Every structure is written in structure tokens, then in C-alpha cells.
User: What shape does this take?
Amino acid sequence: MDTTTGQTKQSGTGATSRQMNQILLTHGELVVQQASMAQKRPIIRNPDWLKHVPYLGGVYVLWRNQVGDWIPIYVGESSNLWDRLYEMTCLGRHNAIQKLVDKEGETPIRNVSILERPEINGIHVSFVQLPIGRKEAEEFLIAKWRKTLINKFDKRFQRRTDWQAFEWLQKDFSHFSADAK
Assistant: This one.
């Protein structure tokens, strides 16, 4: 959509791109609120809380508690939250956990004992069930919390052929702080 002429074009639904951006921002902020307020569950081997995780799609956030504040460190999405969190907690396999160990640990490791590593101690996860729009919600959360995440925001968005479509999101978040409050 070319808006360089100063005119706002109409979408097929009759809403202007500015109105659509506001709608997306409102929905995105709702997901931010839900993810922030969701119960944070410890990343431990074979957790009891796993039986309460739905076999449905959604977004999940890995958190670290720093001086009483929960700081988001990774955002992901999955079509099956139970499978993803099972893989993370029972099998010890997940890209974000491996990145944390590689970044903070003394030696890189790629095996099931990864959950016993001290770098994982204190990491918690929260999740929000979303039947549709998981990828958009994930990208919104990454844009919102990009300064504290190990997700690669800039490279990820620029790899997309439509990454300029997210410029409004980057500009709108310039006045937000990066914390998870």
C-alpha cells in the first residue's frame, strides 16, 4: 500500500490503514496484557502443571525474575502448546533454552540434561491460547519487548518480503519502555 502521497487508502472492509493499525494495536496490547498476567510456571523436568496446558494453538513467553520484576526473554508460538511445552520441559529440547545456555553458560550443550543447567534455573513460562493469529501475536510481542528478548527482531522482520508493513508497529512502540510491566 503506497501512502507516500499523504493520502490514506481504504482497505476492502472500509477501514483506513490508520484505523486498521489502531485495531491491531488494541488487539496486540490485549495479548501483551494476557501474556504478562498469565501464571508463570517454572521450567523444570516433568512439571505437574503440564496437564493443564491445552492441546491448542497459542503464544508462550519465557520469563526471568530480576529483582521482583518479570522480564520477558523469549516469545514463541505453536499450533499445539502442550507439545511445545512438553518438548521444552520433559525432553529439554527447545531453541530458546539452548540459546540461553550457549549465551550464559560456560560450555555449549545439546542434550537432554540441559534442564539441569544453572542457566535455566529460575526461567518460567506463561502461555495464552489463541486459535488464530498466533504468528501476528508473536510478532507483536517481539516488537513490544524486543530489547529484552533473545529473539532476533530486526533480522526476522527484514527477512520478510512485507517487513515494511510493520514499520507502523516499530514507530508506535517507540514511546513504550521495554520492560514487561
